[in-house]
Each structure stands twice: as C-alpha cells, then as structure tokens.
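Saturday, quiet lab. Running sequence design on the structure tokens for the scaffold JK sent over.
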C-alpha cells in the first residue's frame, strides 16, 4: 500500500489533457481493431443476440450479443493482467 505524503493527499502529476490524449489513442486503437475485424469477416455488431428494429421512420439497434462478448473478453484480459502483475 502506498504511503501518503505529509499533507495526506496524492499529487496528480499529469494533466487532464494527457488523460484525454491517452483515452483518444485507446479509442482510435479500438476503432482500428473493429474495422480490421470487419474486413476479415468477423461479424462484430451482427452477432446472434444483437437486436435490431427497423420501422418506417425509426431504427433501433441494441448490440446485446456483441456487448456480452466484449465484456467476457475484457474480463479475461484484465484478469490475466492482474494475475501476472502479482
């Protein structure tokens, strides 16, 4: 457990800008990954369990199957990272 400095608070050395740049790079990487998956025939967004409704003037799309798959994959990745950091 890290020790607190005498003032009792951590000092944040980065800035909000740095956090936004990192988040943006992560989103770009995920976007490229999804685009590559589509080109190689992996139907991300069109899996069984993805719900779509097309009415006359409205479209509603809820990617339930894709959300479950991504949740399981992220859980396994984060579990593996935490397991190897010990």
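Result came back. Writing it out in full:
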């Amino acid at each position: 457990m890290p020790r607190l400095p005498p003032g009792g608070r951590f000092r944040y050395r980065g800035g909000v800008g740095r956090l936004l740049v990192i988040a943006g790079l992560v989103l770009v990487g995920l976007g490229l990954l999804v685009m590559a998956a589509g080109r190689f025939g992996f139907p991300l967004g069109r899996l069984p369990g993805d719900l779509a409704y097309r009415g006359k003037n409205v479209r509603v799309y809820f990617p339930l199957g894709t959300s479950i798959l991504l949740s399981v994959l992220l859980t396994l990745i984060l579990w593996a990272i935490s397991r190897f950091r010990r």
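Notes for JK: Helices lie at 16-39, 64-85. The mean pLDDT is 83. Ask whether to fix the surface positions before the next round.
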